[in-house]
Specification:
By secondary structure, the protein is an alpha/beta fold. It has 23 helices and ten strands. It is elongated, with a radius of gyration of 35 Å.
């Protein structure tokens, strides 16, 4: 049986330590389609940097030529050349941006699309373990970080390194002694950068994870705003939010200090070396060992190299953040999905739903607790409606989630018309079996879109029939009828209206198998009776499992199954069970009292 447990969000201790480069190299699949644009962008930036490096040579020429020989006429061609170089630099840097902007937006969209698709395919157990804010920040801020990395740091790490090498070669060729002096800081700088990379990488990951935690708190408090307000808990939630925001702030400050230390050294050391080179150069010019023009060319080259050297600080910092974002992206993308079935299912035969020896425990259940389901045997005959009753927490909802394979049973088999559900492709399984849960989740779309989600492609007639079965005539009183937007999570509707739309969504496709988890709990007794009558008619040919808490819902069923202690204790018609099963009697009398007091 397939693993149904996805790994939890990785904590710093158990996260694989991958180098920045290796993490970033994993982006190549996404960068590959735009490789020519990237190459064009690097080429344009290289040519622009080449223009920058030519300027010092022209300056040297000006000093040793026209200026030394008081030749004003000779200045103009060189000035014109300087102007052309300046314009070329500006134009090429602009071209670089133009070349890469659109393709990178495509890469970002593709990565975001893949992440979204993956999140849809991953089992529910994965979503139980990953806080939604963590996933949200991966799909938003991490994607943005990666796009920016491909746009700037990636290009400039290449271009600036080459510019540094060419500039250094140029300086050594102009005067090797001065060149060596300016190169001296490279050794401590490389060591420092290596040290920085390790610390900054860890801090980046912490900050990005804390960002995800913050998004989770924010999301929960926005979604739960009614509860927070009615219990007056805004302050408590605000304190939680502030605490997390403070933690993130502390990490960001730590990162800033690290970067500031690196920056101070990256800027300071080359300045000292440049000062030394200037002093030695001046002495050599005074002793006629060097022309003034060569010294000007040398110093201008050294100044032109300030940007490539100084930018190393933020390029490294940004690359670290991007490598963390890439790790966070691939943490999700690497999570194994349910494997596709390797065998063909047995031929279909009219057999309804059959559960044999089904066991289940949640992946995060404490080790010392017994399995929630400990060998459930149940047969719902073809065309039969079976009610499932049991004490609260006995595992009724859990059992219903096993049928559409939202979770995988840990042992035993479940068959639909004789076909093992593990051998059915998920789309096929879910097109044959529809579900409606007690908590009716709607999406911010129109009523029509929400209902037809249960049967994409179904027409107006199917929509009207489903609305009629669910007694959802109220839809026609809405401002735009079925085309009315229901607002985020359908919150513009009442609980009972949402439940009826969820029920309509479950029955709209006229499914062969239907699983309803207490779908009428929010309805008043009168509406419940109407829905039940319509459902009984609609369910005539459907094999259905209905979780029931109230006797009125039980009445909908042909037979009733009692779930207790992880097994099905008894199965039979309502009246028979009332006679023969004390647990059922007890459950029903409790439920009766509840219905009367409701
Ligand atoms: N995602 C989950 N992860 C871990 N444990 C869970 C999860 N969902 C439910 N449980 C636990 O499984 C047990 C059974 O829950 P379930 O919702 O199936 O009960 P139920 O019989 O439907 O209850 P009720 O009648 O109150 O709706 C509970 O103890 C619950 O805490």
């Amino acid at each position: 049986m397939a693993e149904n447990a996805a790994p939890p969000p990785r904590q710093p201790a158990d996260r694989p330590t991958r180098s920045t480069v290796r993490s970033l190299l994993r982006l190549r699949t996404y960068a590959h389609p735009i490789r020519w644009f990237l190459a064009g962008s690097v080429t344009a930036a290289l040519l622009a940097s080449g223009a920058v490096l030519l300027v010092p040579l022209v300056l040297g020429r000006i000093v040793d030529g026209p200026i030394a020989h008081h030749d004003l006429a000779g200045l103009w061609p060189l000035f014109t050349l300087l102007l052309v170089l300046g314009l070329a630099e500006a134009g090429l840097f602009g071209l670089r941006r133009l070349l890469i902007a659109r393709p990178l937006a495509r890469v970002e969209a593709a990565m975001r699309g893949d992440l979204y698709g993956k999140l849809q395919r991953l089992p529910v157990a994965f979503h139980d373990r990953w806080p939604s804010g963590q996933l949200l920040s991966r799909a938003t801020s991490d994607m943005y970080t990666l796009r920016l990395f491909l746009a700037f740091p990636l290009v400039f790490l290449i271009v600036n390194s080459l510019m540094f090498l060419c500039g250094t070669a140029l300086m050594l060729s102009l005067d090797w002694r001065l060149g060596l002096i300016t190169l001296l800081p490279s050794i401590p700088l490389v060591l420092l950068c290596t040290h920085f990379e390790k610390g900054y990488s860890a801090a980046s990951r912490t900050a990005q994870d804390q960002n995800g935690d913050l998004a989770t708190v924010l999301e929960e408090s926005v979604l739960g705003i009614r509860i927070l307000k009615s219990f007056g808990r805004q302050r408590t939630m605000a304190r939680h939010f502030r605490e997390r925001a403070d933690r993130l702030r502390a990490t960001e400050l730590r990162k800033t200090w690290m970067l500031a230390d690196l920056w101070a050294v990256i800027v300071g050391l080359p300045e000292l070396a440049l000062g030394g080179a200037l002093a030695l150069g001046a002495v050599r010019v005074a002793h006629d060992e060097l022309t003034a023009g060569t010294l000007v060319a040398f110093l201008s080259t050294a100044l032109a190299l300030r940007w490539p050297v100084e930018s190393m600080g933020w390029l490294l910092a940004y690359s670290n953040e991007a490598s963390t974002a890439a790790d966070r992206f691939f943490d999700v993308m690497d999570t194994p999905e349910e494997p596709a079935p390797t065998e063909r299912p047995a031929p279909r035969r009219r057999d309804g739903i059959r559960l044999t020896g089904v066991r289940f425990r949640y992946p995060d259940a404490p080790e010392d607790t017994p399995d929630l389901l400990r060998g459930v045997d149940l047969h719902i005959r073809s065309g039969e409606t079976m009610a499932l009753v049991g004490a609260t927490g006995s595992g009724k909802t859990t059992l219903t989630t096993l049928l559409p394979r939202l979770y995988q049973a840990t042992a035993g088999t479940i068959t639909l018309d004789g076909q093992d559900i593990r051998l059915l492709e998920l789309p096929e399984l879910r097109s044959r079996l529809a579900v409606a849960f007690e908590d009716p989740i709607l999406f911010s779309a129109t009523v029509r879109e929400n209902v037809l989600m249960g049967a994409p492609g179904a027409g107006e007639q199917a929509l009207e029939r489903a609305l009629a079965v669910a007694q959802a005539g109220f839809v026609h009183q809405l401002p735009l009828g079925p085309d009315t937007e229901v607002g985020e999570q359908g919150l513009s509707l009442s609980g009972g209206q949402r439940q009826r739309l969820a029920l309509a969504r479950a029955v709209v496709g006229d499914p062969e198998f239907l699983v309803l988890d207490d779908p009428l709990s929010a309805l008043d007794v009168h509406t419940e009776a109407l829905v039940e009558a319509a459902l009984r008619e609609a369910l005539a040919d459907t094999t259905a499992l209905v979780v029931a808490h109230r006797p009125s819902t039980v009445m909908l069923a042909d037979r009733v199954a009692v779930l207790a202690d992880g097994v099905v204790l008894a199965v039979g018609p309502h009246a028979e069970l009332l006679e023969s099963c004390p647990q059922y009697r007890e459950l029903m009398s409790g439920a009766m009292e509840e219905s009367v007091t409701r």
